[in-house]
C-alpha cells in the first residue's frame, strides 16, 4: 500500500506530513517507556528488519492482485504501539530512500496510513479482545490474528479518506472505497496469519519479550480434596540469560535474511492492492517518477547485477542489514535518552 508521488496533492501531503511528524514525536516519548529494559531495544530493531523482509513477500489474494504485510499490528504487539509506529516508519523511510518504494513527497501519507493507523487500530482491538478473552497465550495469539485482520482494511479506509481530500484525479470516491476495502479485507487475512504465527512463535519461546503478553501468568492449579485451588504464587525468577536473548535475536535475524535474500524470489509478481486499484480506476495517471529512481537498489534489485535471483537476493539482504542497523540505532538512542532522564542527576539527587 505504498503511495507513490503524484497520487495526493501538495497541500494534503504537507498536512499528512505534519500529522506524521507529530505522531513520531509522541511515539518517541512513548517508546522511552516501552523500551525500559535492555532486552527490548535490540528486539525493536529486529522487528523493523523482519517487517522489511516480509514486506518483500507478496502473496496472491485475487485474480491479478497480490498483498504484503503492513506490519503495524505485529510491531505493536511485539514491542508496543509507540515503538511499533517507529518500527514501521523506519522501514518506510528505508524503502523510500534506498528502494524507490513509496514516494518521498508521500512519506507523510505512508507513515500516517501504514504506520500510525495500522498500529493504533490494531493495538486498540488487541487490548479490547484481551480484556474479554480468558488469560492465556492462546488468547494473545487469537487477539493478534483479529487485530491484524482489522488493521489492513482500516488502512484502506484511511487512504480513501486522504484521497477524497487531496486526490489528484477525478475518480468516484465510492468506487475507490469499495475497491480498496474489498481487496484489503483479503490482504488482511494474509496479514492476520503472518502476525498470529509470528507472535505465537515468539510467545512460545520467550513470552517475556512480547509487549502484548506482559503480565501474562499461567497460575498453577492443584487438586486438594477433590477441589481445584490456586497454588501459591512462586517467587519471581531472574531474567533469562543474555545468551538466550542473543539466540532469539540471531534466529530472528537469520530468518529475516533468508526471507529477503531467498524466499522473496518466489513472491507474487502481481501488483499489490493499491497498485491494482490505482490502475483499474485511473488513479495512477498522475503518478510521478520517484526521486530515488536512480538508486543502485531501486525496485529491490542491485544495479549492474544481471542475474535476477542474485540481484533481488542481494538487495533484500542489504535492506535487512541497513534496516536492522538503522532501527537498532534509533531504539538504542531512545533508550539511552530514557536512562538519562531517570538518572539520579536528572532528579537532583
Automatic annotation (TrEMBL):
PANTHER family: METAL TRANSPORT PROTEIN HI_1621-RELATED. It is a multi-pass membrane protein. InterPro entries: CbiM/NikMN, PDGLE_dom. It comes from the Bacteria. One of its GO terms (cellular component) is plasma membrane. It comes from Streptomyces malaysiense. Keywords: Cell membrane, Membrane, Transmembrane, Transmembrane helix, Transport. One of its GO terms (biological process) is transition metal ion transport. The chain crosses the membrane at residues 43-62, 69-94, 114-133, 145-165, 177-205, 248-267, 313-334. This is Cobalt ABC transporter permease. The keyword Transport applies. It holds the Pfam family CbiM.
Amino acid at each position: 500500500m505504498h503511495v507513490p508521488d503524484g497520487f495526493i496533492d501538495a497541500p494534503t501531503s504537507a498536512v499528512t506530513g505534519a500529522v506524521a511528524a507529530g505522531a513520531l514525536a509522541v511515539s518517541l516519548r512513548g517508546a522511552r517507556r516501552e523500551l525500559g529494559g535492555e532486552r527490548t531495544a535490540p528486539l525493536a530493531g529486529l522487528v523493523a528488519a523482519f517487517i522489511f523482509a516480509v514486506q518483500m513477500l507478496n502473496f496472491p489474494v485475487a485474480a491479478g492482485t497480490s498483498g504484503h504485510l503492513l506490519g503495524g499490528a505485529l510491531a505493536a504487539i511485539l514491542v508496543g504501539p509507540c515503538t511499533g509506529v517507529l518500527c514501521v516508519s523506519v522501514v518506510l523511510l528505508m524503502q523510500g530512500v534506498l528502494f524507490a518504494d513509496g514516494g518521498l513527497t508521500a512519506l507523510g501519507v505512508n507513515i500516517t496510513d501504514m504506520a500510525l493507523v495500522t498500529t493504533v487500530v490494531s493495538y486498540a482491538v488487541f487490548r479490547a479482545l484481551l480484556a474479554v478473552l480468558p488469560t492465556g497465550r492462546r488468547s494473545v495469539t487469537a487477539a493478534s490474528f483479529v487485530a491484524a485482520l482489522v488493521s489492513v482494511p482500516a488502512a484502506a479506509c484511511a487512504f480513501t479518506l486522504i484521497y477524497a481530500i487531496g486526490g489528484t484525479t477525478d475518480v468516484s470516491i465510492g468506487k475507490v472505497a469499495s475497491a480498496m476495502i474489498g481487496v484489503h479485507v483479503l490482504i488482511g487475512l494474509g496479514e492476520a496469519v503472518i502476525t498470529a504465527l509470528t507472535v505465537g512463535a515468539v510467545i512460545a519461546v520467550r513470552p517475556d519479550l512480547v509487549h502484548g503478553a506482559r503480565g501474562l501468568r499461567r497460575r498453577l492449579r492443584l487438586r486438594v480434596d477433590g477441589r481445584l485451588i490456586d497454588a501459591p504464587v512462586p517467587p519471581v525468577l531472574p531474567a533469562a540469560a543474555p545468551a538466550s536473548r542473543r539466540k532469539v535475536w540471531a534466529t530472528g535475524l537469520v530468518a529475516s535474511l533468508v526471507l529477503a535474500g531467498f524466499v522473496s524470489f518466489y513472491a507474487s509478481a502481481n501488483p499489490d492492492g493499491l497498485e491494482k486499484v490505482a490502475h483499474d480506476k485511473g488513479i495512477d495517471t498522475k503518478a510521478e517518477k520517484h526521486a530515488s529512481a536512480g538508486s543502485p537498489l531501486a525496485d529491490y534489485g542491485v544495479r549492474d547485477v544481471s542475474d535476477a535471483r542474485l540481484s533481488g537476493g542481494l538487495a533484500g539482504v542489504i535492506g535487512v542489514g541497513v534496516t536492522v542497523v538503522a532501527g537498532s540505532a534509533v531504539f538504542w538512542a531512545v533508550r539511552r535518552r530514557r536512562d538519562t532522564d531517570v538518572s539520579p542527576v536528572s532528579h537532583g539527587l
